[in-house]
Amino acid sequence: MPKAQTRLQTLQVCKLLQCVREKNKEQIEKLTLNGTPHLINYNDPDLGLTALIVASKANDDEMVEFLLGIGAHPDVMDLKGKTAAMWAAEFGNVECLEKLLAAGANMTLTDLEGKGILFYLITPTERHLKCVELALEHGANVNNVDKEGNPVFVMACDLSAENEKLCLGLLKHGADPNVAQTKSGRTPLMAAAGSGGTSVINALLEARANVNALDAKKNCAGHLAALAGQLQAIKLMAGYNADFNVIASDGGNPIHYAAQKGHAMCIKFLSQRGCNPKPKNNAGNTPKVIAKDQGHKEAGKEIRKAEKTFGKTGKNNDPWILQLYDWTQARQSKLLQSLLSIDVEESGKVTHAEFLDVMAAAQCPTEEDELKKVVSLCDKNREGKIDYNDFFTAKKWVNKNFVAAAFEGKKKKKKKKGKKGGKKGKFKLVMPICVQDEGPRMFGGAPPEMYIPRHVHFTDTGRFDRDAPPKHPLQDDSAWYLQAPVKTYVNINEAAKNQDFDSMREAFSKGVPVDTRDKFYKTPLMTACAVGNIKVVQFLLDNGAAVNARDNFKWTPLHHACHAGQLDVVQLLLENGAEIDASTINGGTPLTRAIESSRDSVVQCLIEKGCKMQTENKKGLSPMDLAYNWADIRVFEIVQAKWDSLPVAKDKKAKKKEKKKRPGTGEKTDTPQALKMPEEDNVPLPRKGSILRAASALAGGLDEQEDITYTPKKAWTAQPTTQELLQEKEVKRERFGWEVDFPDFQMPFQQNVSKKVELFEAEDDG
Length: 766
Fold this sequence. Notes:
Layout: H1 7-22, H2 25-34, H3 51-57, H4 61-69, H5 84-90, H6 94-102, H7 126-137, H8 152-157, H9 164-172, H10 188-195, H11 198-206, H12 221-228, H13 231-238, H14 254-261, H15 264-272, H16 287-294, H17 297-309, H18 319-330, H19 332-342, E1 349-351, H20 352-361, H21 368-378, E2 385-387, H22 388-393, E3 451-453, E4 489-491, H23 492-497, H24 501-509, H25 524-531, H26 534-542, H27 557-564, H28 567-575, H29 590-597, H30 600-608, H31 623-629, H32 633-645, H33 691-699, H34 722-736, H35 748-765
Antiparallel strand pairs: 1-2, 3-4
Helix pairs in contact: 1-2, 3-4, 3-5, 4-6, 5-6, 6-7, 7-9, 9-11, 10-11, 10-12, 11-13, 12-13, 12-14, 13-18, 14-15, 14-16, 15-17, 16-17, 19-20, 25-26, 25-27, 27-28, 27-29, 29-30, 30-32, 31-32
GO molecular function: calcium ion binding
Protein name: EF-hand domain-containing protein
Keywords: ANK repeat, Calcium
């Protein structure tokens, strides 16, 4: 590994690498012939790159072949000990790796960390898999362990679910299935169990991997599979006589780990296969407590069942039966092939003797007498033959709660429709939530229409402020020497919520509609009413805001105002023509919103204005019902007083429909009067221009007046003084209460809900 040391060598190596990147073959030949001897294999002083490594990283197979032809060695390493083949493998450059292998690249070399080429081929892509095949064909070490004690096979099994072919290929070429990491003690089976590679786990178990091996923390493969929720991996390990009742160093068994993540079916299987669901871990928690703390209801349910049934035997669930069942399920494909080879007639049945011979040849762990009991259970008709498909389903000789079908989860049954005239079910209101797109961008790439330019007041704060404004518009010349702020945008509803009059005023002056809606169809007026800001409400109404607009739930601004519980806002809306009995999508009216907020003044105002009392929402609740459920005693008394004063409604069934009389020919009918068109105002029309008048004006020597109006570059924005801000705070406290200045302030509706919750909690504690 010659490294460039002198100034001349460094310059020549850098020039050579540049020519390789530019694919300048003529210049490369000149440098190698006339430059430093063996320059083609020199490393640059920074990273140790060689010409061959640069070409391999760039996947330039033509350049690689050219460099090898003029004397480049394929095994020259960089400063980290990586060869060109390792770099090509890391990037999945198949063509370059083929050229390097043809030139005799050594596949057993390792870098300074002890990593061979296979460490750089763990990435799960097709190109990397092709490189793996090439490396294995040319003798790559499948049992390579780096200097930190990490075997390449364990690292590959960490990605067994995504990279099954790599793991199976390493195992096929002689990888040790029981190799373990030096520090952690993790084996390939533990790594595969945690990642969920079922085929890799099956291959490892067939290769006699130790299913009961423990790592440094005394975790077995069952612990890691339970933590990851890999039920199929647990089933395969059960078929190879795995012991699941193992306590780790933290005092937890696999059920503790499964309860932590809420894997209910894993808990059920583990408890049936001998894992105790009752012990406590080192923290003093049982699996049931862990599942409860994590909020896993299904897992807690399975743990409670397991605690009741653990250690008890029933019909067809003896330990030897479960061992035989798990053993057959893990080897089902091989056993089925053997039975099909015997069943020449393809009848699906074999004799008892043939079946016992197949099981004996497969080294069945069950005693012959016990196996004969299973055969007799499968052949209840005493035909002398056994249906091997029925044997694998195991419905005749294994309890139904222990077979594979019991862990697939229950299918939801379709609910039967009630008969005509049956009991009416509870009303469920279907609530469609309409959401519209933000819309296209405006002219010039600006955001959608709902976003308006934010007005930013900038000035020289050392000269002017809100209490010392400029005395003349030309006095504030800050715009000439200060950098203008970056143009930003704000949602028009946010501007209404934050009382940003300047931004809204500029937007409306440029043609932005005052009723611009956000994605929930809410207008600025609705937002202002929802926060109870009467100044913004008045401003928007003065600019022509629609007082009866509706949002996605068909709420009007009056609904939002009543929900906010601000009497002055409600009165202002009613004065401007708000519909007092507007109905929402669920039948709610402004009166019901005021009752829910428990604001007696707003309720009294709506009643005095003549709102309807005898209404019902979609759940059949009247304002009186809502007052009983939601409001305090003051609101309830107001609603009850009005309710009692209403006339008793007559029975609708007693009313007979009056037949509409057909208008006779002799009856008098009111003849529609002709509509009178409004008289036009007698406004004098402007005189039309003429050539003679223009000529006489020119002859008279009339001069055009020059406009000398000066517009400042940046006009001063009127700012409220400190005294005005303090007065505004006082008004806000009078309207909303003294809590409005605190971060935990709640609007009336939320206050009412919080009080109800506190009352219910007090009743429960009492």
